[in-house]
Amino acid sequence: MDERRSKIFRVRKGDTIGTDKGILRVDDVIGKEWGSEVRLSTGAKAYLLKPTPVDFTMRGFRRVTQVIYPKDSSLMVTLSGIGYGSRVLESGIGTGFLTAILAHVVGDAGHVYAYEIREEFARVALRNLSMMGLAERVTVKVRDIKQGIDEEGLDAAFLDLPDPWEVLKLLPGSLKPSSPVLVFVPSVNQVIKTLAWLKKGPYVDVRVYENILREYQPVPEALRPQTISVTHTGYIVFARLVRKTEDLPT
Amino acid sequence: MDERRSKIFRVRKGDTIGTDKGILRVDDVIGKEWGSEVRLSTGAKAYLLKPTPVDFTMRGFRRVTQVIYPKDSSLMVTLSGIGYGSRVLESGIGTGFLTAILAHVVGDAGHVYAYEIREEFARVALRNLSMMGLAERVTVKVRDIKQGIDEEGLDAAFLDLPDPWEVLKLLPGSLKPSSPVLVFVPSVNQVIKTLAWLKKGPYVDVRVYENILREYQPVPEALRPQTISVTHTGYIVFARLVRKTEDLPT
Amino acid sequence: MDERRSKIFRVRKGDTIGTDKGILRVDDVIGKEWGSEVRLSTGAKAYLLKPTPVDFTMRGFRRVTQVIYPKDSSLMVTLSGIGYGSRVLESGIGTGFLTAILAHVVGDAGHVYAYEIREEFARVALRNLSMMGLAERVTVKVRDIKQGIDEEGLDAAFLDLPDPWEVLKLLPGSLKPSSPVLVFVPSVNQVIKTLAWLKKGPYVDVRVYENILREYQPVPEALRPQTISVTHTGYIVFARLVRKTEDLPT
Amino acid sequence: MDERRSKIFRVRKGDTIGTDKGILRVDDVIGKEWGSEVRLSTGAKAYLLKPTPVDFTMRGFRRVTQVIYPKDSSLMVTLSGIGYGSRVLESGIGTGFLTAILAHVVGDAGHVYAYEIREEFARVALRNLSMMGLAERVTVKVRDIKQGIDEEGLDAAFLDLPDPWEVLKLLPGSLKPSSPVLVFVPSVNQVIKTLAWLKKGPYVDVRVYENILREYQPVPEALRPQTISVTHTGYIVFARLVRKTEDLPT
Prior knowledge:
Four copies of one chain form a homotetramer.
Chain A: E1 16-19, E2 22-25, E3 37-39, E4 45-47, H1 53-60, H2 70-80, E5 87-91, H3 97-106, E6 111-115, H4 119-131, E7 138-141, E8 156-159, H5 164-168, E9 180-185, H6 188-200, E10 203-217, E11 224-225, E12 228-230, E13 235-241
Parallel strand pairs in A: 5-6, 5-8, 6-7, 8-9
Antiparallel strand pairs in A: 1-2, 3-4, 9-13, 10-11, 10-13
């Protein structure tokens, strides 16, 4: 089975789902366990798979912006050290790809505070998150984050906007000291500007990563990477907020 | 501050910590908040950072085997869809890098069942996990997993051993159908054998990934990737266990 | 100017060349020096560039097969050490991309002996090479190279066919000892089979390379790699033919 | 045989060559053909390989600077379109890695004009080139190229110095219009500055490349990329010199 042939759908009695391999009668899957085999109208086999957060975002989400792919969101989340119960900042929300992973990780005991300047993006992202049952873990504020951050004592910040350095200035009041900040930017010019600002500000442990993901054709007789694929998404800048003291003049 | 200059240590009154920038008196940090600035004997500044799981594994763990780096463990965890409360299988435990990330993600409501054939590895890994306070979330069984898996109804399996195909045969009784299986192997020959077995067995949605992580020197005036670094760790094979019916002879 | 907007054309009086930026009257370029600026019908500027071998192959060649891109052909040629006057073997010719680079490098004092089983490919490749004025440096033999190689004392062999190990067996009579052999194959399975055969045969100095070329958008204000591009072409296997003596039984 | 065990040496009667596998008596190889098998003092086998230009640079050259590796020099040469008889500019010469490849390609009918500000580098590079018998194809000028270029009508320019934009200004008088310019720089900041200058100057067809070369362990039973290796050398910027006319004011 090819992953690109999987479909995410809501189970509604009487519905049919069209695929290039045949039609699925939704009634045929009702009451079936996850992992079960079902037959399409053509006799082709299909399997009932419980969607993971990655399935939801990659195959179920409506996209209105460039997205943060799992190769990047996974590394950002792991580097940040967040987990069950964490309270995190996100700006902006975009299509909600990263938000979904964050909301999954912080669980029902944590929360994601997401600032998004474009109302349309906020609306689509919330609808995407609702499909996953995660909307209650996310508060979306439709406004320019540069006007101020309402929250205090947050555990990490995830910045995916064109000028993250503007937000870096605002974090000291909102983030617990020692907390990680993860910045995602597409161009090296933005990396350079972010680094320059981090150097001047109350940040340490600065690192820059780029994840080049290669997917292989899963054919045991002719294993090889895909011929054409995504070759660039963006750079990840990591830093930690600290309390720097001013050097006194001698 | 250079991340490679950070140290993980246990706070004990009267201790001193030597670094190449000067000596830290542990008494100076007692009672200080995370993120605080302290001075070394030379006057050099240092900062108190709360260790993340990645910090613990990369800088605090004693290593006895090849390890699974965050670039790979993060993608494996995210693809698996596990979260707070998940019950997962791991084989083998090695130095415990992946185990630490898994135990962090499943939280105190989940559990990691880890099989490890080498007693020394199990002992070191458990000591590493204890340092993080995660040992109670992990059950380590010192034996060959090929003799059988005790658990049932697990949510995901993470296989990091030389012949993962031997374990793939055993998973149907232990893993919930639809659950993801993540295999990590260093050579393409192992990928080929894993794929060949997955094709014959009750698995679908098979994919192969390779993550090439590049770290950049975080210097805004001369941004460039590191000159010499890790160029290969291993390949990640993803699949999902399903219930396949046998085709009846026509 | 965007390289993807360049066109290769034969200068014929009275012709016009259509582009998405306007029409070029060929009469306007006759008599002009290389590098000159000309105007299209819309007033847009264009420049007369003397085509390089890469320009000819990438923009002028008719393609009938998968091709060997400059990123791979350049490394193969440099590793082979061939130069002006070299006599080299190629199998198969395909669309002639590699052949063109080889014929350019060996110059008018060298020669390329190319075996190609498919007559259509041979015909297209020769027409492509004629456009560059290189057809006289290449002898194309339309037949299965496995039936035997006519030439002797060649300086290097370039193999781009599905089962290069079959040709490796035939090289000792045709290649000067110490000469390099360059194999290009798309899958890891083919690399494994090639390596297994090289190990048994009269070859030493075996190496395997993969060249991952990233092209950046040449925008100084927003420098970043292209988003979608070629992520895999093939693997390059290098080896050298030697005279191995049989070990006498003790 | 492992390529890293090969040695380049001058044949002198009576000499011995020490290796980690045993001692080679040079008298044993005198009169032997290329590709022949010889025995070391331990009985281990060795083979006589005729050095390629890459062998000379990688294994024979004394290094005094960062070098341009074959993965980069090969692509630069192929993109430039130079060949037998070309007259090319290089600045600076460094250790002579690129110079050697250029001198090999232009043959005895072409020439390399190399500017190098550091006398020591010029001296070492010339000694390296002499070992290959290529010194006569290269004129080295020990002076700052920014003081002016003596040559006219050159076919291509290869720039490997910290501020290539300073040289870009000087090329119009020395390079034939339509000729390619190849710039090699280690940091993205230098790429950005080069692009900014190219945009303002008489250059078109601008492109930026990065070649990520992966070498695999050539073991058919366990094929995998090398674990630790060079992860970054530099970026290649390509452009072509043209005659731009000034836009007249309307």
